[in-house]
Amino acid sequence: MKILFMGTPDIAAESLAALMEAGHEICAVFTRRDKPVGRKQILTAPPVKQLAVQHGIPVYQPRTLRDGSSDDLIRELAPDIIVV
Length: 84
Hints:
With 84 residues, this protein is α/β, with parallel strands linked by helices. It has one domain: 3-Layer(aba) Sandwich (Rossmann fold), CATH 3.40.50.170. The chain has three helices and six strands, in the order E-H-E-E-E-H-E-H-E. The protein has a four-stranded parallel beta sheet with strand order 5-2-1-6. Strands 3-4 form a two-stranded antiparallel ribbon. Helix 1 runs parallel beside helix 2. The longest helix is centred in the first third of the chain and has 12 residues.
């Protein structure tokens, strides 16, 4: 099954890992943008992005999904299902 995954936190990364272990094809990942973390404000990638990059999955980090700017990209990816 061709899956487009959308998520950001640790629990979402666990779900993404479970989908990959089950043998599903992850066509891409949508997640929030990297943000500064900690006292030194070091730019840090969300857990879902880190996992996707490790497995060579394309990562998209749009500012928002509400404006419809990513709709064409999602149609182009043509997933069977979107997991949020």
